[in-house]
Amino acid sequence: MFNLFNRRDEEERARTENRLPPGQALTTKFPVLHYGPVPTVNLETWTLRIWGEVEKEVTLTWEEFNRLPKTRVRMDLHCVTRWSKLDTEWEGVSVRSMIEQGVFKPLPTARYVMQHAEYGFTVNLPLEVVLADNFLLATHYNGEPLTPDHGYPLRGVVGYIPNRPDLKTPYLWKGAKWLRGLEFMKHDRPGFWEEAGYHNEADIWKEQRFG
């Protein structure tokens, strides 16, 4: 039972193990937070578009995307609203593996990536984060397909991999739910929440919540 006293013990353990950033509290739930309604998805017409600073624009159908090699990643999630959830398991496709498989090729001028989601929602990230082990184009969470509230059928997800301090880890909002496109860019530009005043880098360890 995860009561108040157990949570305090777990939080102290997580801090000792350098897994709980400043200002965060543990939860066993998976809170649902997003702006706007949950979209209705038709997998027959769904596509993922990749464009911008790439050699050739690519559009993948749902069937084509699901033929790509899958990977699993266990990560701790840290939301800007101050909840943290440890040891979550995700399955999906890494952007790095898509490049290795020859799905597309970024140009040398590509430095940033804008995630484009349903209803025009956008999230920006440096290319180095998008290509790292802790960013995934996820289709499954804890062994089950994503639920609509959590981004079905595809979402970007970014988290902290324990004992990997070499990886930059932004807050969870930097992974877009209901993902429909990846735009590779020469120059950075703010996404939806960044334009609303949230921090552009969003480092969990520096508490970069707001700009």
From TrEMBL:
This is Oxidoreductase. SUPFAM superfamilies: Oxidoreductase molybdopterin-binding domain. Residues 1-22 are annotated as: Disordered. Residues 1-18 have a biased composition (Basic and acidic residues). Transmembrane segments: none annotated. Pfam families: Oxidored_molyb. It comes from the Bacteria. Residues 36-193 form the Oxidoreductase molybdopterin-binding domain. InterPro entries: OxRdtase_Mopterin-bd_dom (IPR000572), OxRdtase_Mopterin-bd_sf (IPR036374). PANTHER family: OXIDOREDUCTASE MOLYBDOPTERIN-BINDING DOMAIN-CONTAINING PROTEIN, PROTEIN-METHIONINE-SULFOXIDE REDUCTASE.
